[in-house]
Structure formats: structure tokens, C-alpha cells
Amino acid sequence: MIVVLKGQRPKTHHTHGDVMRNHTAHDQANHADHSNHQGHGGHHGHGDHSAHGGHGNHGAHGGGRPGGLSVSENGYTLEFDSTILTAGEQRLGFRVMGPDGRAVTEFVPEHEKELHFIAVRRDTSGFQHVHPVRDGKGTWSVELTLEPGDWRFFTDIHPAGHDGTMTLGIDVAVAGAYDPRPLPEATGVAQIGEYTVALDGELLPGEASELTLTVSRNNHPVTDLQPYLAAYGHLVALRVGDLGYLHVHPEGEPGDGVTAPGPEIAFMAVAPSAGTYRLYLDFQHEGVVRTAEFTVRTATAAHRPDPAPQAAPEHGSHHGHAHHGHHAHH
């Protein structure tokens, strides 16, 4: 699914801008990123980050094809020390092998990090978004808490010398008694402690549509969201069935004079196919990053109000929907 978050304008007036701009960021490859991340699973892994850094040139996967479906892409391959693990808290090691057969040691930072790491069980539970630490030889280490079952790990990377970002994915088996969880209902509301996040809008296959997330706390709008990785919100979308992946960051930046710090976060979304999707929104408030999770089923054009009449384009030229890039990774 292609998802493009848009920054909010004051008084909740939103504008449709270009997808993502080219930015530069500070290289924080060797800084650990720990704790104060709360979500449905109560997992930890995100720290309190300032708004410095930047956004990379993130392109869409195949113009509509989700990322993370392959362990190898463009000559780069994700390699783990082991893909059979024990349950519980543990430190894992892995590398991104380059076209030359060596571990990659140079990456272009995207949203303040050289690598974004996502772990999720195949039943879409246990979502964790963390940022591993790399040594000088190209080996990354990350701490995860894993329950028994089949997992999918994703890495969002932009290797130096490559023309954009990519998302690699790998299956991992965690030993133990597997208790698969049913897919949560599509209620449009996520509750994380005192916080409520409401999702408004419909997801359409092959067509852009607007979705809005509204954050409140104890029934009061949250208007002081804090920058997290140079943005007010980050979204991961997974297609149920194959976990086709997209990680997105908003257009606009904290401190740019136009992007409001809540309560609404709006984005444009294009589902590559009809079906069911899981959305995971990370947002930071009072120094803690929380994750709101949603189940979303695609709608059809018949469910939408009839669009206002529009003048026919000149010379009979019809233009389709432009493909939007994700933070390129997303």
C-alpha cells in the first residue's frame, strides 16, 4: 500500500503537497535508540528524539507494490545470524550484504536513522519499531521481545551509492507454543491507556483517498504532540495475508511554521489491491512514543459520494492518479 502522510495546516486546513522532499540528516548510526515506547503490546524501544535531522528521497515500491516481500533486492540481501530463535527478550545480530558480497557499512540516514527495523508476527500482533546499532564492520544488533510463532522482520535502508531506499524482509521462527491471535475488528478507534486515536476515511484499492487520525487524551484533543524522528507521526501499513509493507512519514516538519502538532494527522493512501490492511501509527507525547493499531478493509468506489461534476480535460487527455512515494519507507 502506498501511503503518503501530509502535515497539517493551522485550523486543520490541509494542503496536498509534493510527497517527500530531499533532506539531509545527521548520521546517528552508532547511537542506541532505547525505551519509552508504549503500544498495544507494551513493548519498548523508542527514545525521546529532537526534531533535527531530515527526510530522505523515498520512492514507492514498484509504483504500487508494497515493500518487504523479498529478502534480496537490487543486489542487497538481509542476512541474520539465525532465523530460528527462542522466545523472550534477546539481542539479535544481522547484516545487509551488498552487491560485492560484503556487509554494507555506509548508509544514507533517513529520518535521523540509518536503518529502521520493524518486527511483527505473521498474525499481525507483537508490532515493534526499533532502531538497531551498527558496528564498524557492518553488523547490526537489536534487542527484541518475541513470543512463539512465525515472525517477519523488515529493514528500511538507503545504502550509500544506491539511488533510493528499499525495504528488505525475512521470515523468522520463534520456538514455543504458538497461540495465534484473531485479526482485530475494524472499529476505527484505537485505545492506548488514556489516549484515543480515531481513524476517519476510507481506503480504496488503486486510488488515492484521504485518511485522518485524531489523537485525544481523556476526551481532550492533543495539540502538543512532540517531534519523533523529525516528524509528529510515523505510519507502517501491512497488507494482511502477505505482510506487504510500507513505512511512511508525514509531509511537513515540526518547526516549519505550518505543520500543527495535533490533534489531527492526515495522509493520502493508495491500496495496491482490495483486501484488509493493518495500520500502526507511532506518535510521541510527554516523552513517550505510543503505537495505535488499526484494522482497515478497503472500500469500493460505489461506497463513496458522487464526485462533483468536472469540466472535461482539453484535447481529450485523461490523467490518472500520480504515484506517491513513501518516506520512502517509508
Provide structural commentary.
β13 and β14 form a beta hairpin. The protein has 330 residues and is an all-beta fold. Strands 1, 13, 14, 15, 16 and 19 form a 6-stranded antiparallel beta sheet that branches. The protein has a 5-stranded mixed beta sheet with strand order 2-21-20-17-18, with no helix packed on it. It has strands at 2-6, 37-38, 72-73, 76-80, 84-85, 88-97, 115-121, 128-130, 133-134, 139-146, 149-157, 166-174, 189-192, 195-200, 209-217, 220-221, 234-239, 245-248, 264-270, 276-285, 288-297. Mean pLDDT is 78; it is low at 1-36, 39-63 and 311-330.
Furnish the topology, listing elements before pairings:
Blueprint (H helix, E strand, L loop, with lengths): L1 E5 L30 E2 L33 E2 L2 E5 L3 E2 L2 E10 L17 E7 L6 E3 L2 E2 L4 E8 L2 E9 L8 E9 L14 E4 L2 E6 L8 E9 L2 E2 L12 E6 L5 E4 L15 E7 L5 E10 L2 E10 L33
Parallel strand pairs: 2-21, 5-12
Antiparallel strand pairs: 1-19, 3-4, 4-6, 6-10, 7-8, 7-11, 9-10, 11-12, 13-14, 14-15, 15-16, 15-19, 17-18, 17-20, 20-21
The share of residues in helices is: under 10%
Query: Low-confidence runs (pLDDT<50, min 5 residues)?
Result: 1-36, 39-63, 311-330
- State which percent range the strand residues make up: 35-45%
Largest sheet: 6 strands, antiparallel
Give the helix/strand class. Answer: mainly beta
Mean pLDDT level: 78
Order of helices and strands: EEEEEEEEEEEEEEEEEEEEE
- Please state the CA-atom Rg, rounded to the nearest Å: 19 Å
Distance between the termini: 11 Å
Q: Tell me the number of strands.
A: 21
**What is the count of helical runs?**
0
Q: What is the assembly state of the chains in this entry?
A: single chain
Q: Which outline best applies?
A: globular
